[in-house]
Amino acid sequence: MDKTLENIFNCFDKFFYTVMKNIKYDINEVRIRSDKPVVIYIKNKPYFITKNSDIIPLEKFGTINDYVIVTFAALKNAFSGLCEYSIYKYQNDINNGFITVRGGHRIGICGTAVNNTDNIKSVIDITSMNIRIAKQYIGCSEIFLKNTDIEKGILICGVPSTGKTTLLRDLSRSLSKNYCKKVSVIDERSEISSTFNGKSIFDMGLCDVYCNYTKSKGIIQAIRTMSPDVIVCDELTGDDIESVIYTVNYGVKLIATVHCDNLNSALKNPSILSLLKTHAFGEIVFLESKSFCKIDKIYKLEDIKVD
Asked: Which domains, from first to last, does the chain contain?
């Protein structure tokens, strides 16, 4: 277990920390619900954890007391520790349902929203937590690069846990280091590079990394100041249309991701359809839903009616 994961689990009680440290499997996610058995995902398959650090498939559920459980009080204390005992520092992200901690690990949260007119002012009484473990797989983008044309711009589509961010991370590294491209990475939540105190935990090659910039501001800033060949960013939405058009006007290639499972649903999604209409993406790549960083299908924009 690497140091960043140890720091996460160390925010819980000593018993939970010891159990997690003794698990020898490559974990994708850890789902913690107050007063419920903890569930871990290994290769996207869920398991319970016994108090001896053994893993049991969900379909073989036994007596609840056989499994590791985190109480509401322990979850509350752990969350405070994960926020470095400064909830205010993470408030904006908390209001959006997650925090990103050192190591690039993203922790989704569920609790009680405190509303202020139409906006969420804060989230209290955290009852669920989903720790999505960031990983780096050097070379995982090579097959992708051999089967796509970066010069056309690429929109990567996939459901959660298909490796979109992991793939972006290695694409950025490889394009800048092996293909001699000037690459700017707009890392809005520090998930791609896992930058902490100005230093990336992951190997980002020769990229220029914009941490904590919004995608719209980061894209425009990069084009104005760093003359990139390629801009890489995660999770585009309809709010990013203007900056995407900006890349088209300046001839900069864009590689980005969206949440989507197939072409039919993409074309029915107003935000994704608007992104495709900018013609920033010559290819749309869908990842396999039950694999990791693997291409399922590739579509050329010229073969799809988006206008």
From this structure: 3-132 (3.30.450), 142-303 (3.40.50.300)
